[in-house]
Write a structure and sequence with these properties.
It is built from 14 helices and 11 strands. It is an alpha/beta fold and 358 residues long. The chain has 2 domains: 150 residues, Isopropylmalate Dehydrogenase (3-Layer(aba) Sandwich); 202 residues, Isopropylmalate Dehydrogenase (3-Layer(aba) Sandwich), CATH 3.40.718.10. The longest helix is centred in the C-terminal third of the chain and has 27 residues. The radius of gyration is 21 Å and the shape is globular.
Length: 358
């Protein structure tokens, strides 16, 4: 009999703690109907049990692990590490290391989550740094964009590692055809090979000249993200985070208010809004950040998913689904295979480049 997938949850993380985490579990139970998924909830048992009492479906598949300690949203990573052992965040991650869980989800402090995950789980063999990947709604579906905040700068080799991790993530979570290789593009200021800084150009050369199990498209520009030109867009965390926050801000503070203002400006506009209510509801769903909430920390020896701190229960449920999908997939094996290929090919590619430069 197949054993259940177990997801370990930092129930005290984020802006709302158990009041969002537990209803999120209840929604995830519905979304993952037919799959055997169980949950370990770490945090204040009294608060968690009070929420579980309101959600019998979540109660039936959950186990509570009490701790009265939590990581504050404003704690520095170094401070969180010093006092982190025994907190709900630490315990949620530790459950993966101790083979009690297959994945962990937290809406808490990103820096602390990153630091604790690296310390407790360590990096996968061959990988240098973790990366946070965002699921990005596009004209063609959903693309994966990484890094969106884990690393301010990245060299060429690290960008290739991000490409490998992003391709495996997209195949596991978003691909409808698992036999099709993910397409990967490097975010740049132009599509020509001579554009961009040295690290991006070198990463492009490495992706072209090493035989990896992905399809390298080439350089892509900012507007290609929304177009869905490629399945995976690779960049450093500084650029990726700015792009992500810009897109979120445009959706929340510009598009939605403008649409609302336009549709309520006149009686005729209001009538049109009523007639088009079904289509408008569908559009609102595509623009809703909660529908793509859940950014995994790729590259670790285990599945760790960062939920947005201010998300609602629907968004938290989406992060839980991402964790369940990754835990049940072969994405770690796909990363390992491509890293083996890259490691074997890299010396020869670098040697050929050195000879060509002489």
């Amino acid at each position: 009999m197949t054993r259940p997938v177990v997801i370990s949850i930092d129930a005290m993380g984020g802006d709302h703690g158990p009041s969002v985490a537990v209803p999120g579990v209840a929604i995830a139970v519905q979304r993952l109907a037919g799959r055997d998924v169980r949950y370990l909830l770490h945090g204040d048992a009294a608060l968690i049990e009070a929420e579980l009492a309101r959600h019998p479906a979540a109660r039936a598949v959950s186990e509570v692990r009490h701790t009265d300690r939590a990581v504050a949203a404003d704690e520095k990573p170094a401070q969180a590490l010093r006092r982190g052992k025994g907190t709900s965040l630490w315990n949620a991650i530790e459950a993966i290391r101790d083979k009690e869980a297959d994945a962990a989800v937290s809406a808490g402090n990103t820096g602390a989550l990153m630091a604790m995950s690296k310390l407790i789980l360590r990096m996968s063999v061959g990988l240098d740094r973790p990366a946070i990947v965002a699921s990005w709604p596009t004209a063609r579906g959903v693309s994966a964009v990484l890094d969106v905040g884990a690393n301010i700068t990245s060299d060429a080799t690290q960008l290739v590692e991000f490409a490998i991790m992003g391709a495996a993530f997209h195949a596991a979570v978003h691909s409808k055809d698992r036999s099709r290789r993910s397409t990967v593009g490097l975010l740049n200021v132009g599509s020509e090979d001579v554009k961009g800084h040295e690290e991006v150009r070198e990463a492009g050369r490495l992706l072209r000249e090493t035989s990896l199990d992905l399809d390298y498209y080439g350089f892509v520009e900012g507007d290609d993200i929304a177009k869905g030109t490629v399945d995976v867009v690779v960049t450093d965390g500084f650029t990726g985070n700015i792009a992500l926050k810009t897109a979120e801000g445009m959706a929340k503070h510009f598009f939605v208010p403008i649409i609302r203002e336009t549709l309520t400006s006149t009686l005729l506009a209001k009538l049109g809004a009523v007639i088009a209510s079904g289509a408008l509801k569908q559009m609102k769903g595509r623009l809703d950040p909660s529908s793509v909430n859940g950014g995994p920390l790729l590259g670790l020896n285990g599945v760790v998913v960062k939920s947005h701190g201010g998300t609602d229960a629907k968004g938290f449920a989406n992060a839980l689904k991402v964790a369940a999908d990754l835990a049940a997939s072969d994405y770690a094996e796909q990363i390992a295979r491509n890293m083996d290929r890259f490691g074997a090919a890299l010396p020869g590619v670098q040697a050929a480049a050195a000879e060509g430069a002489e």
